[in-house]
Amino acid sequence: MRSIMITMMIAMTAVLIGVNFVYYYTTRNTLIHNQEHYISGVLKQVGSSIENIKAGEKFYEVMLSEKLRMASIAAQYALPHDAEDVTNEQLIEIRDKLGIEGITLFTYIDGQVTGYKSSDPEEIGLKTITWSNGLWHIMFDQLLQEHEVQLVEHFGEKLKNYWGGPIDTSYSMPEKISKWGYYNDGTTDYLIDPYVSDSSFIDFQNSAGVNRSIEAIIKENPYITQISVLNENVLKEGEEIIRKGTVWLSDKLVTYGAYSLQSSSDKDYVHEALDKNETIYKIVQINDKKYLNSYAPISFKNYINDNLVVIISSDYAKIQSSLNEQIIRIAMVSILCLFIGFITLLLITRFIRRQGRVVMDVQDVYSENLDSLFNTMKEYRHDFNNHLFMLSGLASMKKYDELSEYIRALTKSQSVITDIINVNIPAFCGLLQAKTAYASEKGIDLIYRFEGFEGVTISMMKVTDLVRIMGNIIDNAFHAVEGRDSLDKQVQLFAHVTKGHLSIMIRNNGIPIPKENLARIFEHGFTTRRNQLGSGIGLAVCKKVVKKYKGDLQVKSDPDWTEFTIQLPLTGSES
């Protein structure tokens, strides 16, 4: 009983540990999934914020273009129509009157549109052929040749006789962000290029746009550490392009947010997200800390070269900390459950022990009754003299037939009584009595012998199982001999205990088992007696019970005998 209790406690502990492991990984995945779900909402929010700010920027640029076009027309009225007749001093004077940052005249020099006259000496001699892979130069050619532009979609603004270039870093003054306008109505041999340097544009981005939203998002979610909105094109190239000692606005890697948490795997994961065109989530390690990073491409249909990638870094340690808190709580509940289970098991064990004592008391009473029965049988032996007088009388009366029959009955009765007395396991005795009575009624000769059972104390459970096994096999033997047309119907049962092993052999001379059925008779549901309401369960149960005790059950059959052999090991306390 103690071993059962210990086994159950170990099993309960193992189950609780297993449940905790399952809960750990389930909760971990749930937390990560919830964070990913939250991040998907954040990505939509960031994308919407960027879309709005882009719309605001576009409107802002259109307003600047209209202002610059008016400045171009005013400058045209004040300047000669031939670039050769214009002086830089005139341009400086016009610049100051119009309140703009500067003004430059572009015309063809050696077949290229080049800065010819300017209020800023740094603008003079500028070659435009390389700007944005020649795209600006194309627009200049159209204005000078056609006085109108075929606008490249989402690239600048088109007005009458005018094209406004996108806001970007000034080539001549890299420290400034500028907006340029270009005008030519065919009355001059040059492009009029007024421009403004507007730091308020950057201030607008930082204060009223995406960065403000990013800061609010990070404050709202304790897990999010950083949000980076990166230029997809720069990220693909692997580095920012440095021109004249600075990085152009259009060439900056970080468009919004910050990017201090950089992983060596970011570029590969970004490429993966771009190839799949979906958000992916990865756990990365940066400076000995783990982060749950999301990589999401964001495309804007209304803006050229403005495809962005958003990287959101969540502190994995905080997620793990939250998980650990939940694990500690569930562990405390598990320990409480284990304690309650231990107390419950202890109470059940005590109850079973009490019930066991009751069963043993019943068995003792049963044994006492059997012993009483056996003692009575022993007393009958003392009265055997009476039988001798009976035999003598029949002999003197020459009633030989009656004498022979009387002697045969006495011999058989004496053999049965002697065999039963030699079996010291009450349950076996009960089985033998029942089967002997049935065999006598059916004209079957039941022969049995038990050896080596003196001092053997087999557990009550095993005895019960053995009775079931022997009863099933003996019943099958009875059916086999009953189906045979012969007066010699025998069923034999031999059991003996030697060297810690119990051997039982049950054989009959009835109808043999066909060879094709020998391998199947222990299958659950298989029977050859369907017409006799056979269930096919008995032998399957026997095989299962024998295996439970690590024993062996074999069968062989020939035209003369069908024999079942059972081998069971006995424990030290049993033998």
Helix-strand layout with pairing:
Elements: H1 2-78, H2 88-98, E1 102-109, E2 112-118, H3 135-146, E3 157-159, E4 162-164, E5 168-169, E6 177-183, E7 191-197, H4 199-208, H5 210-220, E8 224-231, H6 232-237, E9 242-243, E10 246-247, E11 254-257, H7 266-276, E12 280-286, E13 289-298, E14 308-315, H8 316-382, H9 384-396, H10 400-422, H11 426-442, E15 445-451, H12 460-482, E16 490-498, E17 501-508, H13 515-518, H14 538-548, E18 552-557, E19 562-569
What is the overall silhouette? rod-shaped
Question: C-alpha Rg, in Å?
Answer: 52 Å
The total count of helices amounts to 14
Query: What is the oligomer described by this structure?
Result: single chain
Average pLDDT figure: 78
Count all strands and give the number.
19
Determine the strand fraction and express it as a percent band.
15-25%
Q: Gap between N and C termini, in Å?
A: 19 Å
Helix content: 40-55%
Structural class: alpha+beta
- Spans of at least 5 consecutive residues with low confidence: 242-247, 368-373
Biggest beta sheet attributes: 7 strands, antiparallel
